[in-house]
Amino acid sequence: MTDQERANREVHDTDIFAGDLPDFLNRWVSAQRWFPNGRVPPALSLVGQWTLASPDPDVQLRTLLVRDESSRGTAVYQVPISERVAPAPHLEPALIGVAGEAAGAARFVYDGTHDTVWVTALLRFIVERGLVPEQFQASSATIARGQPIHAAHPSSSLASRVISCPVRSSRVLTGEQSNTSIICDLGGGDRSVPPVICKVFRAIHHGQNPDVVVQSVLAQAGSIYIPEPLGAVAGEWNDPGQPDGRASGHLVFVQEFIPDVADAWRTALLAAAAGEDFSEPARRLGHATAGVHADLAAAMPTLEATPRVMVTMVTAMLDRFRQAAIEVPSLLAVRPEVERIFARALTVPWQRLQRIHGDFHLGQVLDVPGRGWILLDFEGEPLRAVSERDQPDAPLRDVAGMLRSFDYVSGTVTHSHPHLDPERVAAWALACRRAFLQGYALGSKPRGSRQSMSDGERESGDHAGDNAGDNALLTALELDKAIYETVYETRNRPDWLPLPLAAVRRITSTYARSRNDHD
Ligand SMILES: Nc1ncnc2c1ncn2[C@@H]1O[C@H](COP(=O)(O)OP(=O)(O)O)[C@@H](O)[C@H]1O
Ligand SMILES: O=P(O)(O)O[C@H]1O[C@H](CO)[C@@H](O[C@H]2O[C@H](CO)[C@@H](O)[C@H](O)[C@H]2O)[C@H](O)[C@H]1O
């Protein structure tokens, strides 16, 4: 019998989750940041579960898949559990509840993401291609598969190097909302094995996770612009909402964790406040963005931007604007200009559509000393339907996202440092914008004629970025992103709403002025 088979059998024999789920689980879930219906106590039902082989006979490891029957939503949530026969004082803050006390066989149930034993077993499951087959009861017809991701050179890939490495320590990152991320230090201080970050998806969905798919493709293309992926867990579970009653999707993603580097949102804020020029990193970032786009266009399906495709995309932008105006009524004041700017995008040629980052901003990129820019989190915009996120899109959407982010830096710094001259801060952002566009244009040249940044930096003038800067599609995409941001801020950070609203007004009034000049 394999370790995995033994784990499955033991969990089945002593299943404290076999009947109704215990109340303490409902209470605990309702208090978690990733659970949306915070105030209403959920009525969780078990959809399924997958087990991990535990190295310790007194610890059982499983992950519950639960659905909240009290809400109309159909979301399924993952709850990794570490179940112990004795209390573990070091896990006290992660205690979910105690079961079976009355029967004299107490089980201490902990949040598995906080237990290094669960994390160790998870990594092993992935690198050893673990498989949890359908088992123990019909209602838990859940399948989980460990899938190592191999980069261009499988023998040196992270999954191969991690295979014999112990987990020295693990800790859960705080501050996130939708996933739980665990950082693990591996090996005996061996520097060839970096720490890894395990992203446990809390709300799981039918369909492949864009972050896993895109980063796997980039790793296989040998991209230097992403953390090295280690692997994923893919699953299948019962879902009455699907035509065949089954859903499948990613449950966990693990990749190299790059320690001690602040994301570019923080470094850019500091630079802008100090009046330090940021155009050199911005130019390199544009170049890196173009490199990622080139790899994605070569490795994943692309779509010609026919008039029909263009109209569909512009119609979607108009729909988003109309929806946004319901939540942010002040947008209605600029409706005619918004409609014209979107319509004007149809008058220029577009590049082929392709896979892109999808939610590109300074908080998603790290400038790593000695390595350069690294892009994170290819999951796409959180407010966008998951089914839309894996469709080919305009690569300029990522460019627009980053340009909006430079503007956010300027707006934030102006607001938080009232003594600074707003025009100087705006000039800082404009320099970033120009440099980013130059780097992007330089990196987008066809292979062969594409220059390295050092060549490019010496040679490139403003012209490289100006084409993109004038592009009617880029303006439309910046406006589309600013409109998205008005909704995002209204829902999440209402104090920030003036920032994207000001951008919407600026983009529309600049357009209106330029029309008047031409008339
Ligand atoms: N591979 C990585 N290396 C270094 N930092 C990372 C890595 N992946 C994510 N981060 C950082 O960890 C934090 C959490 O990331 P993530 O799990 O993607 O959650 P979220 O979707 O909430 O941003 C972010 O601040 C991000 O910058
Ligand atoms: O949570 P995600 O990182 O996936 O992205 C969402 O949240 C972002 C805010 O953290 C939001 O980005 C907006 O604010 C940023 C500054 O905090 C700014 O750099 C971006 O330009 C601005 O869009 C992002 O839009 C949203 O999807």
Automatic annotation (TrEMBL):
Task: Respond yes or no to whether keyword Transport is given for this record.
Answer: no
Biased-composition ranges for Basic and acidic residues? Answer: 455-465
GO biological-process terms attached to the record: glycogen biosynthetic process
Report if keyword Cell membrane is assigned: no
The GO terms this record gives for MF are: ATP binding; kinase activity
> Which Enzyme Commission numbers does its entry carry?
2.7.1.175
Q: For the region Disordered, what residue ranges are annotated?
A: 443-469
One Pfam family it belongs to: Mak_N_cap
Q: Which UniProt keywords apply?
A: ATP-binding, Carbohydrate metabolism, Glycogen biosynthesis, Glycogen metabolism, Kinase, Nucleotide-binding, Transferase
Q: Which reaction does it catalyse?
A: D-maltose + ATP = alpha-maltose 1-phosphate + ADP + H(+)
- Check the record and name the Gene3D superfamilies matching this protein: 3.90.1200.10
* Ranges for domain Maltokinase N-terminal cap: 28-115
Functional pathway? Glycan biosynthesis; glycogen biosynthesis
Question: Which EC class heads this enzyme's classification?
Answer: transferase
To which protein family does this belong? Belongs to the aminoglycoside phosphotransferase family.
Q: How does it assemble?
A: Monomer.
Q: What is this protein called?
A: Maltokinase
Q: Which organism is it from?
A: Cryobacterium psychrophilum
